[in-house]
Amino acid sequence: MKYGAISPILLPSPESVVMTCKELCYSGELAEHIISSGKRTLSGFALSGLTGISLALIFSQSPVAKNLGYFVVEAARVTPPLALIPLLILWLGIEEAPKIAIVFLSSFFPIYLNSLTAIESVELKLKEVAKTLHFSSWETFRLLTIPAALPGILTGLRVGFGYSWRALVGAELIAASSGLGFMISEASEFSKTSVVFVGIFSIIVIGVCMDRLLSWAINRYAKFFSV
């Protein structure tokens, strides 16, 4: 197949993508979209991390609370977050809240499930250790359970961030006025395929870098908090 045989609208040349990337960087447009997406992701991710780990801690110590909240948690878990976008827009408006809510719903369950599994699994192993050391329930939880479960909790955070990043871009494709998803959607409408490729590559690079950072945190700190 000859070079240029495919329409640039369908598949732009590498040179065109590089030039477009430079233009977007020099104008500051790419940075603005990245910052918008980053703020939404970090806000929703922080909220889901706090809520997911807190609920895991509560449910691991209270079977009654776990049983009472089981149906609600499971019903929310099997509902695709993107399917809730029309409802979230109706409830929360068209500003930042719906996008943050999508990030929260997408990242909450990996964090919650990994944290709960990690805490419950280590508690079984540490019961005999706690008895030997004559620890109270609180001392066992604080000094043994949490440090031992931390690698699993960090893994849940790592997985949750991946879900939140993908879900945010999907939400921005539908309802947003800024962000990488919006940039891709707008470029597609005007057949600016090179801009679409720049957006996709930006999503990949940022996602991989954040995943490596969280992976480094897991490997770096797990050995200090493991029992």
Q: Summary?
A:
The protein has 227 residues and is mostly helical.
Give an overview of the whole structure.
The chain has 227 residues and is mainly alpha-helical. It has a single domain (27-225), classed as MetI-like fold. It contains 8 helices and no strands. Helix 5 (97-133) packs antiparallel against helix 6 and helix 7 packs antiparallel against helix 8 (193-225). The model has no long low-confidence stretch (mean pLDDT 82).
Mean pLDDT comes to: 82
Whole-number tally of structural domains: 1
Report the count of strand segments.
Answer: 0
Distance from first to last alpha carbon: 60 Å
Task: Specify the oligomeric state.
Answer: single chain
Indicate the proportion of strand residues.
under 5%
- Count of separate DSSP helical elements: 8
H and E order: HHHHHHHH
CATH topology: MetI-like fold
Annotation keywords:
single chain; 227 residues; mainly alpha; MetI-like fold; 8 helices; 0% strand
Q: How are the elements arranged and paired?
A:
Blueprint: H1 14-27, H2 29-61, H3 63-77, H4 85-92, H5 97-133, H6 137-174, H7 180-189, H8 193-225
Helix pairs in contact: 1-8, 2-3, 2-5, 2-6, 2-7, 4-5, 5-6, 6-7, 6-8, 7-8
